[in-house]
Fold this sequence. Notes:
Distance between the termini: 39 Å
Strand order of the largest sheet: 1-2
Shape: elongated
Amino acid sequence: MFGLSEQNYVVCPKCNALNPLTANYCANCGLQLQSRQPLYPPSTQARIVESAFSKENLLQAFSTRRVKLMIIGFIIELALFLAFSALPMSQAQYQAIVNSPSYKQINMVRAEGLISRAVSIFQNNYFLASLEMVPALGPAIFTYTTYSTARVLDALGYGSGVPGPLLFVNIIIFPHSWLELPAYAISATQSVILVYSWIKKRFFQELARTIIVWLFVGLELFVAAVIESSIITLESYGILQPLLMWVPTLVIFYIAYTLLKRLNKPQNPLSYQPANTTA
Length: 279
């Protein structure tokens, strides 16, 4: 009351008067008070921050089980893309998409230079991926963004006389699609995992792993943006030149696979040291 937060005071159980946290006795009635302790002591807060990026959280964030869930999310995304791009499009719908600000923004980004274009692509994609990681809302946002992207793709095919699904197949030939699309699937999957952890009362522990996943998605989308921007530049040199970007992409895939395999490698039981569980 009167702008004072009770979180900064001790409430006397006898007269309900507000007293400073350090008070031993109530200033109003003289009752001996039990000073309130912080929810997390400073030492505990430090341990929480340090453990957020611990090896244990890193292992759990990309465990075999979670990777399988992410792959399932990616397969669902591909199926949604094909289904949405196969929807019929009328002339009115085509004109509405072509005249929309988002469609014009795509053309403006494509006209930018290599570096600025990569930055623009990354900012847009990372923003969408971050929204798709929001608990509960993530899958709905993921479905909507997949639908919107598929319809834009369908509009491109409508204008050139190419069916949407065929144009989608043509796009996934290029390597950046195999980085961008899985990144969105990972974000939506993490949203579902956050909801599950809330039900299991492990939400705050899962938040630390979510930060790791969010940073990983950012790195993945940054690499994808650089590759996509390079592909757009190479398009002016011929049809096959953009496919050369598969070379660095495959190297990146190999490095990621090797790291993931090492993370999920069973630990040598002889070198395992159990954690000290004493208080």
